[in-house]
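Re: weekly structure request thread

Next one in the queue (337 aa):
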Amino acid sequence: MKRFLLLTLLFLINLTSHAQKDSLVFTNNNIMVGEVKSLDKGVITIETDYSDSDFKIEWDKVKELFSESTYLINLTDGRRLNGTIKSVAVPDWEIYRIAGDTVKVRRDEIVYFKSYEQDFWSRVTASIDADYSFTKANNFNQIGGRANIGYTAPKWWLKASYSLLRSNQDDVEPVKRQDGSISYRAFLKKDWYFQTMISFLSNTEQLLNLRTNLKAGMGKFIIHTNVSYLAVEGGVSGVNENFESQMENQNSLEAYLGSELDLYDVGDWSLLTRLIIYPSLTESGRWRADYVLDTKYDLPLDFYIKAGLTVNYDNQAVEGAADLDYVVQTGIGWEFN
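Done, posted below.
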């Protein structure tokens, strides 16, 4: 019996030590043992047996990392590697690639990593948020929501998003707006990428029943650090539009040029802003612009508070429609990653 208990104890110790195989050493020399899951937007996530929720620590507070896990890793110079990470001597780190070679880096050159699992759900991220407003005067009420889901592979990602807004008010026509997109991005060398996207938009302000946009182009990260990233991209876009005042669909070809800035090392705050301009190639003098500004404040248990501004501009709007449409949304949401 004693022998059985001893063997059982040794098995549990071995199981625990295997599960808790990673460790972090902080700049104050404290040590945390657990499973290092990811580094994203300047925050490293570690799971431990002694807490129901994951710990999130700022990356610049980590001095050393020891792990046997395999990660998808992004560097500031645009390289994307698969392998294990180990600190050697501050500030030098080594990445042992699955391919068999070793890459020496500095800690601040590592801008992203995530544990590389074979199962589907470990590569999925998702978020959903909703908002509601009501004012007694004129019986004004507004409901809206947004949802996002993404899948990340070693050399590409696939993302989908959807946004909805409905508002009603006495003696005023209801306001309806919805938009969504599915985008694919393939990562290339030196922080270049290829991207294709199909998106749709409908809104009553511009008398737009449906605008479908299929675009493809190239982009590059100009800045890519643990504090922020700035990307620019350009390409061509095919457009199909249907307006309330027109019987037939309208087709056109556009070029597009855009930029995106993401700031994510501001404590629990993050900010994303994106501007895309579409000069028409088939309609003389016409151009459109889409602008997005999103800010988010993280709460415990993966909840967050979010506020956003979305603007759509068309300098040749159809007769009776506004050339400018914008929506401001605030709400609370939850994310999975």
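Helices lie at 2-19. The domain at 122-336 is CATH 2.40.128.130 (Lipocalin).
Next request, please.
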